[in-house]
Design a protein that fits this description.
By secondary structure, this protein is α+β, with helices and mostly antiparallel strands. 50% of the residues lie in helices and 7% in strands. Helix 9 (227-237) links the parallel strand 5 and strand 6 (240-241).
């Protein structure tokens, strides 16, 4: 049995030929599949012989049928668990690069406005739990449930090794290895063709035991389709019509309102999102920049257009947008899709994060293609359209030193001559240079996107000066919400800030009625605040009241207080803000001793919790 398994694995390794889709290999592939089926049958016989014949279910079932039942049972458990937790199963189409191909073809159908031929697309949804779960997700969940690794492997072989041949213009094509049933069918919007398609789907349902979910199946027609034809086909198929393919595929074509905001309502925006995405050491919150992250996601797809030139994804976009050039040289084209426009927007990121590896040098232009750590410096006027191949001696496969000395400055000469050349000319290759492995990654691409956004940003002189202050805030051993309070104290919705934003609020402090209620006044110089600070022992009582704003006050206290006293000040300031809000909204006023006690007790509990977790 072990030798049979070994032979099966050896045969399966040969199936990599199926990924090439070469018609010349079809006979060889079919012969290999027959051999594998024979070996699998022999292994099933061995399973039956090893099973207990006295009432054991395995004695009357083949391993494949048993594993399929096991897989279906596990899937039901998984779906029930997800339903009970209220979660959705999210597929990973980005990893498989299926969505750009589907969107591009749908875009083509949707934008057909002229011509006698009318086209349509049908998005099929299969009503079967087996096809709603990603198989990689299935394997991970089975391992989480504690199922033995051998059973997991056998189950995954059962669901993952199926493949199909299809006839395209009378010729067999494939093999196609399915991952999940999420299918698009494209055809002409003719009643006779639709009727034939329905007959084929009916045969599929009867043969497979699956059912087409007509509530989720949708139709998309080209814009040159007459309304009466749409209605007739919709009635025939019994599904709804998709009116907007961009919205259907979930791409962010139109931005919406902020969460919870009604049509006529205006909300106050206290701080710019750009500032929130600034690193904490520079005065921000360190949030992820959504625009830069989205650009990095798109760059991951665009990188495949450069590296994986044998994929269907590449061939679809190559034939449509850059049939005579490369992706990096392609133009926008006529009637481009939203996906294509988005992919083109990533080229600056790819240029910044990549470097050319010199092969034969025929596709690398010296001035425009990056193959050095710096922009090449010419001795005289720059040579336009100078290719790297012109700097290589074809006979010796070495750099032509005379040309290098005549054209470039010393630094450029030395760096070019340090580039190794192979004895046999090979194709030039674009490598990712932002990590040691020279492999494209989302993390490094995101950092490149941030770097590009900050190139036009000139850092203010106060940023470097205030960096130690921001670092001090985030290093305080106080509860996280106290740190956040100190960080945004200068934009608190005080009465003065509300008055500045044209709200009908008087700026005077409601406690002392002497000064405008700014953060520094309400938490430090107001009589109500002074009564609380007077109860504090140590250097806090002796600190000066002279401060322009709350941040200046914090900078002053950092120079004068020890770390433990600074933490006490931060906690008491937070408690003072809570007390003022309680006075405004609940009409209750706490005694200064209670405010101080709440702050110190909260800080003490936090320190005890941190100590217990060490």
């Amino acid at each position: 049995m072990g030798s049979t398994r070994t032979r099966i694995e050896e045969k399966k390794q040969l199936q990599t030929l199926t990924a090439q889709n070469d018609p010349a290999n079809l006979e060889l592939i079919q012969r290999m599949r027959d051999d594998i089926n024979t070996l699998l049958y022999q292994e099933e016989i061995a399973w039956r012989q090893c099973s207990d014949p006295f009432g054991c279910p395995l004695a009357t079932r083949t391993p494949s049928s048993f594993i399929k039942e096991l897989v279906n049972a596990v899937i039901k458990i998984i779906l029930m668990a997800l339903w009970m937790k209220g979660e959705d199963v999210v597929h990973q189409m980005l990893k498989r690069r299926e969505w750009p191909k589907a969107f591009e073809i749908l875009h083509r159908v949707w934008n057909k406005r002229t011509g006698k031929k009318v086209q349509m697309a049908i998005k099929l949804d299969i009503s079967k739990a087996y096809d709603r779960v990603e198989w990689s997700f299935l394997g991970s969940i089975m391992r989480k449930l504690g199922i033995d690794e051998q059973w997991v492997r056998l189950a995954m072989e059962t669901v993952c090794t199926a493949s199909y041949l299809v006839l395209i213009i009378g010729k067999p094509r494939g093999y196609i290895t399915p991952s999940r049933d999420y299918s698009f069918i494209f055809c002409q919007a003719i009643e006779g063709e639709c009727q034939h398609l329905l007959e084929l789907l009916s045969q599929y349902e009867q043969a497979s035991g699956q059912a087409i979910n007509r509530q989720k199946t949708t139709l998309l027609f080209s814009q040159n389709t007459k309304p009466e034809v749409k209605v007739a086909i919709q009635r025939m198929v019994g599904v709804k019509i998709m009116e907007n393919c961009e919205k259907y595929l979930g791409l962010p074509m139109v931005g919406g309102k902020s969460k919870g905001q009604t049509k006529d309502e205006k909300k106050i925006h206290w701080i710019n999102w750009k500032n929130l995405c600034t690193p904490k050491k520079k005065g921000g919150m360190g949030f992820r920049d959504i625009q830069a992250f989205n650009l990095a996601l798109l760059a991951k797809q665009a990188w495949q257009l450069i590296q994986d030139t044998h994929s269907l994804f590449y061939r679809v976009y190559k034939s449509r947008y850059f049939p005579t050039c490369t992706f990096m040289e392609a133009g926008l084209g006529n009637n481009p899709s939203y996906v294509w426009q988005s992919l083109l927007a990533t080229r600056d990121l790819i240029k910044e994060g990549s470097i050319w590896q010199v092969g034969d040098g025929r596709t690398i232009e010296v001035s425009t293609h990056k193959c050095l750590s710096h922009k090449p410096v010419f001795i005289g006027d720059p040579c336009p359209n100078l290719m790297v191949s012109e700097l290589i001696d074809e006979n010796s496969r070495q750099w032509d030193r005379e040309k290098l000395f005549d054209l470039f400055a010393y630094r450029t000469q030395m760096e070019i001559m340090a580039i190794p050349l192979s004895r046999v000319a090979s194709k030039d290759k674009l490598n990712w240079k932002e990590n040691k492995g020279k492999v494209f990654s989302m993390k490094s691409a995101y950092q490149v996107a941030l770097r590009l956004k900050q190139q036009d940003y000139v850092e203010h002189s106060t940023v470097a000066r205030d960096r130690p202050i921001w670092n001090k805030i985030w290093s305080l051993k106080v509860p996280p919400k106290v740190k956040k309070f100190i960080w945004h104290a200068y934009i608190l919705p005080t009465r003065d800030n509300l008055h500045r934003r044209k709200l009908h609020v008087k700026s005077r402090c409601r406690f002392c009625y002497q000064n405008s209620e700014i953060a520094e006044h309400g938490l430090w110089t107001c009589l109500f605040a002074k009564n609380v600070w007077a109860l504090c022992r140590g250097k806090l009582q002796k600190c000066s009241n002279a401060a322009i704003d709350f941040f200046s006050l914090f900078r002053l206290l950092v120079d004068r207080l020890e770390c433990d006293e600074l933490e006490k000040w931060a906690s008491v300031s937070w408690s003072l803000l809570t007390a003022r809000n309680r006075f405004y909204f609940e009409k209750t006023q706490w005694h200064p001793k209670r405010i101080l006690g709440e702050a110190l007790g909260y800080l003490r509990e936090y320190h005890m919790l941190c100590t217990s977790q060490l």
